[in-house]
Specification:
Length: about 120
């Protein structure tokens, strides 16, 4: 029997409203709240939360001395179309050279790695 149920994944960032807006544009959903804590409620019941972190320092990828700690895998039907859209929204490419793979690696505007993955 499980001891707990996962509630929400929370991303530390310098601007919760801006980062919630970025992920709302990528994933859809509704942004709720303002200020120090912002939730993104997705239509399937999942959620992401964004928390203000004074002095936030983004992870460096790939760098063992500045661990990414986690990343988000996002299923997409078309990698090329997803790439165009996330770049237009402010993502930065981290590892997109190998076009034969089923994923590409980007950083969101706060520097968190995420991977659109072909589904």
């Amino acid at each position: 029997m499980a001891l707990a149920k996962l509630g929400v994944v929370v991303l530390d960032c310098p601007d919760p409203n801006a980062l919630a807006g970025f992920y709302a544009a990528v994933l859809g959903g509704t942004v709720e709240g303002q200020g120090e804590w912002v939730d993104l409620k997705l239509s399937d019941g999942q959620a992401l939360a964004f928390q203000a972190a004074p002095g936030y320092v983004p992870p460096k990828w790939p760098a063992p001395d500045h661990s990414q700690q986690f990343h988000l895998d996002l299923d997409v039907p078309d990698l090329d179309a997803a790439e165009k859209e996330v770049l237009a929204l402010g993502a930065k490419p981290l590892d997109t050279e190998d076009r034969t793979r089923t994923f590409r690696v980007y950083a969101d505007p706060a520097g968190h790695p995420f991977c659109p993955c072909a589904c």
